[in-house]
Amino acid sequence: MFDKIVFKARINIEDTDTIVLRNYLEQCTEGDEVYYKSTAYANFDGCFIELRGDRLKCKCSINKLYSKGKTGKLDNSRPMTFANAVRTIRELLMRLCVKAEDAVVTYYEIGLTMRLSHSADEYIRMVEDIAERILWNDANFPEMRQKTTEKSKYFRKVLKIYDKTFEAGEKGRNVGSNVLRIETVYRHQNVPLPDLLGDTFLEKIGRIFYKDWSELRFVRELSAVKGVKISQLEKARELNRMGVSRYKGKYKQLYAAGKITKKQWETMRTFANNWHVEKAKFIEEISELECEFKEKLLTCFQIGHVTPFKKNI
Questions:
Q1: Does residue 93 contact residue 102 with C-beta atoms inside 8 Å?
Q2: pLDDT tens, residue by residue, 97-112
């Protein structure tokens, strides 16, 4: 389902007064230019708008707008289908006097909220990477409250997982306990709005969302078959958590820094190079939390919280 979305649009200049009045915009000046923007009221309305001449920019959470229409509250913790999102966007366009064909989306988020059996930070603690990209602790959050893939300007797609219960509580809202949120953020986009609202596009990004998050890699403990030494099991567990490249990189650096001997480094390197053979001696144990997360994800996908199946329209 859509959450935050940013789009730019060209409007009919004759609709300026209507847009200003409907959306409680205030008049501003910048040099000789007169323009309009949202006031603090937007914090309650959920829609931030800037209007300069015939150019309009809008930033809002489609999920929150949908929730406000249903419950009167801005809340993105409730499930919403793509079909609900499309209807909400079309209603927003009418309010803004914008034609879909005159709008381009520059940023959007696809997200899913899950109510699970344990505290969200327990799941976050157990995940390390997704779709071959490392998940890092977000420095803007306490440890294990949010992890994201790299967010540098070179990445147009960012994936994040966070503790929705904690995040809402920090903002003075209560969404209940054990609520986990996953999101895929698409930045620096240039998608015509009619394309974004089309079934083909929605089906595509829905399936990409499910594929990416179904590949979320949880830490899995290893147990060993009979005859394997404890020291080998410890190396195998670390290697399994880190992957061959990162494991070798870590011990190569330790050797270069003089913290381990040449023999120790060669032992580690040989073990890592032979991991494709050695791993047959160990058994991965899938945790209860991983099973629950992936079952919940699949359920949401099947009932249409992520994909725009016709039955939800």
A1: no
A2: 999 999 999 999 999 9
